[in-house]
Amino acid sequence: MTADLAYRRSPDQDRREPARHPVVIVGAGPVGLALAIDLRLRGVEPVVLEADTALATGSRAICYAKRSLEILDRLGVAARMVEKGVVWQIGKVFWRDRMVYQFDLLPERGHKMPAFVNLQQFHLERYLVERARELGGIDLRFGHPVTGVEPADDGARLAVDTPEGPYRLSAEWLLACDGARSLVRRALDLPFEGQVFRDRFLITDVRMAADFPPERWFWFDPPFHPGRSALLHAQPDDVWRIDLQLGWDVDPEAEVGPERVIPRLKAMLGPSRPFEIEWVSLYTFRCRRLREFRHGRVIFLGDAAHQVSPFGARGFNGGLQDADNLAWKLALVLGGAAPEALLDSYAAEREAAADENIRHSTRSTEFISPKGEASRAYRDAVLALAPDHGFARRMINSGRLSTACTYGLGDGAAGWSGGGIRPGAPCADAPLLSPTGRPAWLLERLGHGFTLLRFARDGAGAESPLPRGDGPVTLDEVVIGGRATPWVDLVDAEGLAFARYAARPGNCLLIRPDQHVAARFERCEPQAVARALRRALGEDAPARTMAGT
Amino acid sequence: MASLSRDDWIDQPDELYQLLVDAHQGLSPAQSRQLDASIVLLLANHIGDAGVVAEAVRAARAAATREEGARAGEGEP
Prior knowledge:
The structure holds 2 protein chains of 2 kinds. Chain A is of the alpha+beta class. Chain A has 13 helices and 28 strands. In chain A, strand 27 (508-511) and strand 28 (517-521) form a beta hairpin. Helix content of chain B is 66%, strand content 0%.
């Protein structure tokens, strides 16, 4: 059941001079591990340094959004998550003693991945460690805490401590995935600023037999916890996540004691339901981020770069999208196929994404913990109007759940005024058939390198070929048609791909290796495609302006 | 794009004023605040144009703060 994460000596510890590696990742949490696997799949062999020799304790992150599952599917672990985890898509909001609002996060079929999977973080970490070991070429070092970082023009020098003494390392690229208390961030003395919410939340995982449906239930002012909020999430193995808002004026040390926790849970779960407490923690939430995610050869991802409140599940889900965005870019830069400037687009895109996540998370937290009399009056007005007024139901904000981020790809978007998937957005999945009639998912065909996705002109003969392999990267071509013809790779028998992309026959899309649309074209002209590809590779990119505005 | 109307649309201003004031009868201060918020939300939804609502917010804020500023002796004459 538990993965072997024991400390092992590295040959680097016996070298006289510090070993130099192309990529060193600090932190083997889920973001660091996912990044390592993604880099490995793209031909890079990273070193991962982790202080701990155990998986995460407690549940920590539990909600994995559809986009995360799609990324994790590309990395090869999503099937295990869906199998083990609790699949859900319905959220219910209660006010006092009645339900006022219900939402469905995936009201349509025809997607490989569900809206959400709930799973304890340590399961995901174990799947990622096992996947990394299965792939080989990833140097996972548990029990190797980084104690010092010295950035340089050509990378960074690291001091690492181990049970057998310290050693030094040098990295061409240092990727900081070492969490909210990031040592790398502190070593570089970078401010991590934002907003602290004056409220405290008791977060517990309890084990109990319960036949509640697998849904997200959120209460405002419930009879069992008057004047505050509560949240219930299902996890595998009869474990339930319960968040109880306690307010600011409580004694944080006393509140985690069983004599306080058990009565609160009994009030919620009923006096006669047996349960066992697996994990208890008291949190104060904050929303903050680094001003810049890239500092030369040191790049920050996940909680090391940004922090949000948990309402909306935007912590890990945001961090994983960081890894998804960076891995292909760094691999291309290391391989000499793209200029270093491409990495500035990582910073720009993910800083904007962090702002979006922080904005949503802040609004949710302000709705749940109104700051003053006026905001409380509006919050209560919305809840009181909700049963009878649809517009008010849509204002109820118990967490806007994580979705994929659409990047502002500058002029890439200018060429598209139509519907469907616009430039910057991640590709939508669709159920398709291979020419021989085998079921296939569109996303399974995307995300290795750059792909040109073409919507065939039905019956109009083979598409004109594009010149391939004359640039720094090869372009994979996938042709979708309404029916099986010799020039079609995937058959859109149900018409869902054409519909979701609002595609007309002859349209084509340039897809980045992270499955985001780089550009759309009415017709596939080789010169226009080549131009868009150069842009997506960060060539002739303008010098970066100040971030964080 | 619509903008906030500054014309007089109310036939019987005293009636409307009294209607809004009377609505608060017998309410606690918290209920009263919630009532006002509910009325704002219902009317904002009726208007349905965030630009118009934003203009109303600006006008209301200007009026409210001008009064405060005047009291503090900083306001415009």
